[in-house]
Design goal:
This protein has 4 helices and 15 strands. It is an alpha+beta fold. It has one domain. The chain has an 8-stranded antiparallel beta barrel with strand order 1-4-6-8-9-12-13-15. Strands 7-3-2-14 form a 4-stranded antiparallel sheet, with no helix packed on it. A hairpin with a 5-residue loop joins strand 11 and strand 12. The chain is elongated.
């Protein structure tokens, strides 16, 4: 999983007399035009909840996580219901922080929207985090129909099962990537890249980039006979067969070839996500340049007057 950390450095130049007032005015104007920033890395877990997967959908509720219930009606996507929680912050990395709403506390609720194929153009919200006070949405994460990638290009899960750490998807375009863990079963991963911003409103013009993945380790699954050596845990080939998809070695498996995509399996889940601030929008960059030009012009005129 990629973990990114952003460091911000600010240099202050001292000017004499009125120049300080002009510089301050430029900075205030800039601050008013730029979007608040979300940066840092967060680890989440399902808590008391679980994720349920079919061949065409992922549902993160019910049940709702009762370990850290948010105020009723808080989350936009599912009032009063949280599908997970902030589990920890990795030592040495910047905690997920909103420049307006602070850092969501460990144990605070996280809402994750259910998704199904075909995906809509936008999913807002896809995720929401409580603010540091625990009384409002602090951070919203948005997704598009390209946020989840296209799974693994390999649709022959029998081949993947034969090689440790090999990956596959049950059909072309399936969002979940299955990784062969040998005697330890199968890792199922949903990769995500979207955007994040403050509060629960619409996204600003320049939101932060937000990326990571949600994963779960599948071992013993009701309705599936596992064939992992020594343990009988489920393999990628077992999961592909459970959803009625063929193991075609010579061609790509399509969703239309699968006969049991409405079958479902449930498991706990966890994930790690990183938010990185994007560069200022062109309007803000122009404003910075305008402020510097105005300051230079003022200093030139002042020199001439002397």
């Amino acid at each position: 999983m990629r973990k990114l950390t952003l460091y911000c450095n600010k240099t202050v130049h001292r000017l004499g007399g009125s120049a300080v007032a002009i510089a301050a005015a430029s900075l205030i104007l800039l601050a008013g035009s730029a979007s608040a920033t979300v940066i840092g890395t967060v680890n989440i877990t399902s808590g008391a909840a679980s994720v349920t997967a079919t061949g065409i959908s992922l549902s993160f509720s019910p049940p709702c996580d009762t370990g850290s219930p948010p105020p009723a009606g808080l989350f936009t996507g599912s009032p009063g219901c949280s599908q997970g929680e902030v589990s920890s912050y990795t030592v040495g990395l910047t905690p997920l922080t909103s420049s307006v709403n602070g850092t969501p506390t460990v144990g605070s609720a996280v809402f994750i929207q259910s998704i199904s194929a075909p995906l809509p153009a936008t999913i807002i919200p896809f995720m929401q985090f409580l603010n540091s006070a625990g009384n409002a949405v602090g951070i919203t994460v948005g997704a598009t129909n390209t946020s989840f990638g296209t799974g693994s290009p390999n649709t022959n899960c029998t081949t993947a099962t034969a090689t440790l750490f090999a990956t596959c998807s049950i059909y072309q375009g399936a969002l979940i990537i299955l990784e062969n863990l040998g005697s330890n079963g199968t890792e199922a991963t949903l990769v995500f890249t979207g955007t994040a911003w403050d509060g629960s409103g619409a996204p600003p013009a320049n939101p932060s980039l937000f990326s990571g993945s949600i994963s779960t380790q599948l071992t013993l699954v009701n309705g599936i006979t596992g064939h992992a050596p020594g343990t009988g845990f489920v393999t990628p080939a077992d999961i592909q067969a459970y959803f009625g998809c063929p193991n075609n070695s010579g061609s790509t498996v399509t969703a239309g070839q699968c006969t049991a995509l409405n079958n479902s399996l449930s498991s706990s889940n966890s994930g790690t996500f990183s938010a990185v601030a994007t560069v200022p929008e062109p309007a803000s960059m122009a404003l910075i340049g305008g402020g510097l030009l105005a300051l230079g012009f003022w200093r030139k005129k002042r020199s001439q007057a002397l």
